[in-house]
Amino acid sequence: QYEPEWILCQPPTDIHRDHRAIAAAIIRICQKAAWVGGILCYEVWTPINATHVVDITDVLELKSQAISCHVTALLAGDYSSCILSLNRYRGLYLGFGRYAEAFRLLKLDGSAC
After folding, report:
1. For residues 106 and 41, is the Cβ–Cβ distance under 8 A?
2. Got the DSSP string for 12-65?
């Protein structure tokens, strides 16, 4: 019965196969429900062509703490620095010294807007 206005998920074009599978499942569920909200895809492994950019400068420390909880992933690589660098790059849309997350609006057929 809950009908959110927005659903956030990984893009169906993400390099990680689990992320692609999750995105595909979300799209199928939304199509079956005849849901009319919006799906916003966020960057995980694969940079996206952004349709929306959100300033996260004020919560960057909290995000850093959340990333540090992914202990096994961090053993495989310095994802923390990579993610924060991507956020710094995205922040250039907002001005010098800002951090941002990028999103892409997705149609229910799986194509980008």
Report:
1. yes
2. TT-SSHHHHHHHHHHHHHHHHTT--SEEEEE-SSS----SEEEE-GGGHHHHHH
| Predicted confidence (pLDDT) at residue 103 exceeds the cutoff of 60 | yes
113, pLDDT greater than 60:
no
Cβ atoms of residues 100 and 107 within 8 Å: no
CA 103 – CA 107 distance, rounded (Å): 13
Write phi, then psi, for 103 (nearest 5 degrees): -135, 155
pLDDT value of residue 56: 95
Sequence-distant (6+) residues with CB within 8 A of 22 are: 9, 10
pTM of the prediction?
A: 0.80
Name every residue whose Cβ is closer than 8 Å to that of residue 54 and which is 6 or more positions away in sequence.
Answer: 100, 101, 103
